[in-house]
Amino acid sequence: MTALFSTREVAKIVELDEGRIRSCVSAGLLAPARGAGGRLRFTFQDLLLLRTTKGLLESRVPLPRIRRLLASLKRQLTGTEQLWNLMIYADGRRVVAWDGRARWQPDSGQFLFNFDVETFAAQAVPRRAVDAAPAALRKPPERVKATGAPALTAAQWFALASELETASPEEARRAYHQALALDPTLVDAHVNLGRLYHVSRRPAEAEAHYRAAIRHAPDDAVAHFNLGVLLEELARRSEAVGAYRQAIARDPRFADAHVNLGLLFESLGHRSEAIDHLRLARKLYGRRK
Fold this sequence. Notes:
Elements: H1 7-14, H2 18-26, E1 33-34, E2 40-41, H3 44-58, H4 63-76, E3 87-91, E4 94-98, E5 103-104, E6 111-112, H5 154-167, H6 169-182, H7 187-199, H8 203-216, H9 221-233, H10 237-250, H11 255-267, H12 271-286
Antiparallel strand pairs: 1-2, 3-4, 4-5, 5-6
């Protein structure tokens, strides 16, 4: 039996506003079933399409254009290819589709050269290792001078890096490197630095720091989760499954890891495993009320 999700459940899983989800349905991006009272009921495939839509909306692609792009893609697919198995992302002003072999622009059908994986946009968001810095640290930090400055500890460099992330990611990366130079085992610095490289589309550096975090703290669920997100984006799906499983083994209540693993299993055709993880995620999200 196919698992079906309500609009509220989908909003929690995909982290998309309920009103926006209804707008996507009204725009014809997807056609969910309707249950008692005309309530929308969504399938796994609908979740995958909504996650893709969310990424495009966050990249400022208008909803009408998304509808046209998805319609074009449906016409371009042949055989057993399915829309929800593609990676669809914004690359500057253009939107690109990728099936694991080739990249092309859905609106024109033009194929693109596969220079390297750094062009792939994130489909899921890697986590920070820690929350924002304490209120006492939220004022803009003074720039540390190259000479004559007092020596900072690894913890102080880490706090400075955390504050710099929003204003200057490049300076934040440098500060995290300073912290790691003083203490290479500082796991949170590896996780946060990996995430900065990750969102900057520098996957090799991101993977190196996520793996360093895991090496120093094998039980850190966030490090495993972030590695899974990265590997999934790089189409290393079997490795991504392993990373998500490691995250869940460390934290069985990690709802986002269950969601990502469930959707990944669905895209791989492993329906029963997908159902198990998405049902559990639904229960975990429900407990957050």
